[in-house]
Amino acid sequence: MNILGISAFYHDSAAAILRDGEVIAAAQEERFTRIKQDHNFPINAVRYCLAEADVGPGQLHAVAFYDKPIMKFSRILETYLSVAPKGLQSFMMAIPLWMREKLWIPMEIEQSLETCGIHERVPVYFPEHHQSHAASAFFPSPFKSAAILTLDGVGEWATSTLGRGVGNKVEILKDLHFPHSLGLLYSAFTYFTGFKVNSGEYKLMGLAPYGEPKYTKEIYEHLVDLKEDGSFRLNQDYFGYIDGLTMTNDRFAELFGGPARKSESEITQREMDLASSVQVVTEEIVMRMARTVHKETGEKYCCLAGGVALNCVANGRLLREGPFEDIWIQPAAGDAGGALGAALMVWHHVEDKPREADGKNDSMKGAYLGPSFEADEIKAFLDARGYAYTCMKDEERADTIARLIEEENVIGHFNGRMEFGPRALGNRSIIGDARSPKMQSIMNLKIKYRESFRPFAPSCLEEAVSDLFELDRPSPYMLLVAPVKKERCSNVDEDVSIRDRIHQIRSDIPAITHVDFSARVQSVNPDTNKAYYDIIKAFEKRTGYGIIINTSFNVRGEPIICTPEDAYRCFMRTEMDYLVLGPYLLYKKDQPNWEEKSDWREEFVLD
After folding, report:
1. Residues contacting residue 219 through CB under 8 Å, at least 6 positions apart
2. Given the DSSP bridges, would you call strands 547-552 and 457-461 parallel, antiparallel or unpaired?
3. pLDDT tens digits, residue range 284-295?
4. pLDDT one-digit tens code per residue, 543-584
5. How far is 562 from 554, CA to CA, in rounded Å?
6. Domains of the chain and CATH, by start
7. What does pTM read for this prediction?
8. Residue 499: which residues within 8 A CB-CB, separation 6 or more?
């Protein structure tokens, strides 16, 4: 039985497909269209999923869309009516879009399937948005039963839910309703500090350790009425997302000492302190909700999804200090993962199919669920364009790449299936030497073309995690922040400017040690990704360090690469030294001159 899941029309559209409950393929639309966080109907992702699962006419049994459009539309209408005549401009922008496409999803699905050769009628199901999140969190997890916590901006009405999963069923026990939203609170501060909503939240999280939580009192006194159980109300006198076109308003600006920072302008101490403050408040809300759902369910484990579940600092604190023995976070925790969750809801709830869980292994296949390219396809691409390359023998590949990393080269690594979710996990990654004190600056300024304060994540051998970090378990999806081992850290002068703090050597793995001596950890094991594991193992043999830098293979404002052509283009547009395409190694100085048709950097940097 083949079930297709779809998420679309808000941000990060995606598709996923199950065969008899097994995840066969999943991908975001942005990877194919090269439009970051593409919100359009994911026709390219649908085509890929059907092709990867080899599903043809008569072989698709159900489609699941990740929320209920009519219920969401009614919430939007009710919200605008409640604030009228305010919000007229926003209303006039939103309603035509709904009338044109968002209310016609069944027809859109039917027409799209026809373009893919599926002409027969297929039943379409519409689970609620947070049901899809809950399903994506629990059903692929290793746990037979668990508490479930979902947190994001807003679905239909719900913005956060507390639930429970047992066997092949998930149940929502409590929810928090719009406009009171942890995701929207965090996005409001993202907007106010000059970053882009729905994509810049991770920048705010990365900026937080540079500041002090000086504004937490103002947040609690004026913005957030927080209860002991984690529920809260947001004071709408300070926000603009209901009746305006901005996340915050003049009263918000007055409370925090002036207007919002303009994008690309200098980051001041105020922005750092605001980031620190809202991060503290976010973590407190997550911790209170976690304690409540633990009390309500009595479960030992917790599963998380929704955009806020990508806040890996909060996740790390929940794991260290929370009431649960272990947690599991859906690697595609945002709306993209809703496509997978919707399909799983049909399989387990509608079809009532059983679920297996061994308590140890999840069913996400390492999140390597996207397209792959065989060696002969890559070779044909390189030969057709006359690009210079050498072919690495299988037994030489890992050590060759490890040697280049040791020599402080920056390498684009393209291999195997593309990752599902926002994190590159080795197959569409830019990699480098975590021991190098200059590598963070080189990668930020010469490769990624992004803010210099942004930290890089490490990929380390799974067996080396506890030797490197204060972490006693694997972190395969780069969704946990953990402190670097104290004995590896250096004493630094805290009373210096942000520019000087960026360049401080804080540990013996300085390129991945953030200003607060933490790192966003990815552990790698040979069962999930042997080729990537072998590179890190070879690097350990050469240097004694089973750890390298891993950052996503893209430049700022661009989606992670998907194809060999995407990889080569990014390679030539940046100052990377080498490109690995499967078994093929390309050296930058051997390549023909690269000519751009437009000033691509202007297009991508101003995001």
Report:
1. 277, 278, 281
2. antiparallel
3. 999 999 999 999
4. 999 999 999 999 988 999 999 999 999 999 999 999 999 999
5. 10
6. 375-605 (3.90.870.20)
7. 0.95
8. 452
